[in-house]
Amino acid sequence: MKKKMWRIGRATAGIFICAGAVFFTACGAGDGAAPGAQTAETGQAETEQPGMTGNDTEASKAEEPGNTAGGKTDISKEDAESAADGGQDGNVNAETGENAAPVKMSEELCQAKIRHYYGGILSQVMAAYRLPDMELGIGVWGNDTLEAGEMAENCFAVSDVDQDGREELLVRWTTTATAGSLEVVYDYNPVSGELKNEFCAYPLLTYYDNGVIKAGWSHNQVPPAEFWPCTFYQYDPAENSYVEIGSLRAWDDIGEEWDFPTDRDADGDGTVYEIVKAGEEYSDYNSGYGGFRFDQAEVDEWLNGFMEGAKEISPVYYPMEYESFADFTPTYLKMLSEEAGKERTDQTADLGLLILNEDRFLDAAQTLLSEKYGVVMEHPDSDFEEWTVGSKDGKELFSFEALNAGHIGYKGEKFKDVTVFGIYPGISVDGAWAKLQAYGFYASPGAEVENCLITGEGFGNISIWFSAEDNVVTDITVGPYCAFAG
Predict the structure, then answer these.
(1) Do the beta carbons of residue 298 and residue 271 sit within 8 Å?
(2) Which H or E element spans position 113?
(3) C-beta separation of 377 from 397 below 8 A
(4) Mean pLDDT for the chain?
(5) Is 57's pLDDT higher than 90?
(6) What is the pLDDT of residue 424?
(7) Range 22-34 average pLDDT
(8) How far apart are CA 102 and CA 99, in angstroms?
(9) Gap between the Cα atoms of 152 and 145, Å rounded
(10) Could you tell me the residue ranges of all domains in the chain?
(11) Which of 52-59's residues contact partners 24+ apart within 8 Å by CB, and which partners?
(12) Cα-atom radius of gyration of the chain, to the nearest Å?
């Protein structure tokens, strides 16, 4: 039998849309509307293809996902239409919670911000089995948790598959039943702060450098054929999503009980194809599968109309485990810290910066305060050794809690030149918000108290909250944070 073009395995799932967001400027590409993944339905018996191979290897051909040094970000487009309800807003007004004035960012910082946001999505996947706009199925026997090894069977990639100049996040989820398996393409715009679901389908996808996706179906619909049915989609920059081009199915002359339409097999190779363009209906048993009437030359002509010269893109997929994206958030926060530090001369005694730079930040903070300033460290409660108090001249100024990832407290009045991300007891509330925003903090969307800020919702972020009287900060608490942990 003649070898067929564009042979591939299964796919197609459903449409998922996200909503909600924020604002930033100076970098961005791709704008958005609804994603275009659609399931091909024929109503006929299905035959599931056993096994699949993906683009899960070739890690040596691309940069590590945590390395933000490579790649440029297109700055020609600045608008997007759909938004994410995941809550990772990064530029919110200090007092009102509304969008703050846009902030200029370098291309390198733009890319780091994008990956920081993707790190939040991946954290949510691992901890809560959720994407920003959908729940994820767990196991095939109704399991409600996944072991670490099972979670790592899922994977992700960060790659510019739509070729708009900005990296997308690809999440492939397979540790569930066939109907729940999917691969989704997300685009985060660091200019508008908006997340867009560009595409979602069964995880048998091939990406091309002309913005086309070939999506193999999850099941093979009758009639039988060696060629696996698939649907083609084209990236639409105006919509920032993929729109359907059409689908391709085949029917092979296998003898047996199938009455192969020899009269339609113009080239006599024992295969006829059905081309179903977007919006058209699939043929079925009742029509004698009359749509299967195209020969190889006609299929080649149709494919070449949108695929001629296209080259396959092979995104590098990483296992769904924290180590695969552990550098996303610290890289971004350290870049912001370096930028904010250009305007400061008082960083040597900043307890907040220790959280960014020290694995054992509680020990580092206590050592700094005791050795440099003579602060006395004590355990006021012998039954609670995780609680340490730092005092000077009999006045309690600092506290350290070695639970829930650890927290540092700073209260009463400013002590020497000690700060926490530039703030201290005695600074005005407005001044505190302004300094914290320079380090990437924004109002926590889930906080039940005022003046609670975070740098993001995923693993590796930081939270800070403070109390105030008469618009003056009195007590500060800071520590690592993840909205999906605990």
Answers:
(1) no
(2) helix 107-128
(3) no
(4) 83
(5) no
(6) 98
(7) 37
(8) 8
(9) 13
(10) 46-319, 342-481
(11) 52/9, 52/10, 52/203, 52/204, 52/216, 53/9, 54/172, 54/203, 54/204, 54/317, 55/206, 55/314, 55/315, 55/317, 56/155, 56/317, 57/316, 57/317, 58/314, 58/316, 59/316, 59/318
(12) 27
pLDDT at 439: 97
pLDDT tens digit string along 244-293?
999 999 999 987 778 899 999 999 999 999 999 999 999 999 999 999 99
pTM above 0.85, yes or no: no
pLDDT digits (tens, 9 = 90+) for 136-152: 998 766 667 899 999 99
DSSP 322-354: GGGTTTHHHHHHHHHHHHHHTT-S--TTBHHHH
Q: Quick one: tokens of 160?
A: 């510019």
- Assigned token pair, 433: 């918000």
**Residue 345, token pair as written in the block:** 């001369």
- Count of CB atoms within 10 A of residue 165's CB? 17
Close Cβ partners of 89 (under 8 Å, ≥ 6 residues apart): 21, 22, 193, 442, 445
Looking at the DSSP bridge assignments, the partners of residue 398 are: 390, 410
Q: Are 7 and 227 in contact (CB under 8 A)?
A: yes
In the numeric block, the tokens 């339609």 are attached to: 264
| Spacing of C-alpha 152 from chain mean position | 16
Average pLDDT, integer, range 380-408:
94
- Helix 328-341 crosses helix 107-128 at what angle (to 10 degrees)? 140
Contacts of 119 (CB under 8 A, 6+ apart): 325, 328, 329, 456, 458, 459, 460
Summarize pLDDT for 181-203 with one digit per residue, the tens: 999 999 999 989 999 999 999 99
Contacts of 116 (CB under 8 A, 6+ apart): 328, 329, 331, 332, 333, 456, 458
Determine the CATH number of domain 342-481.
3.90.1150
**184 in Cβ contact with 85 (< 8 Å):** no
373 in Cβ contact with 413 (< 8 Å): no
SS3 assignment, position 301: helix
Which pair of structure tokens corresponds to residue 87?
């809550």
Beta strands in 125-240 (DSSP E): 130-131, 134-135, 155-159, 168-173, 182-189, 194-201, 205-208, 212-216, 220-221, 230-236
Cα–Cα dist 220/411, whole Å = 66
Q: Are 93 and 193 in contact (CB under 8 A)?
A: no
Angle in degrees, CA 129, 134, 140, rounded to 5: 55
**pLDDT tens digits for range 329-352:** 999 999 999 999 998 998 999 999
Q: Angle between the 328-341 and 429-438 helix axes, to the nearest 10 degrees? A: 120
Q: Which residues contact 51 (CB under 8 A, 6 or more apart)?
A: none
**pLDDT 10s digits, 90-124:** 544 433 344 444 456 789 999 999 999 999 999 99
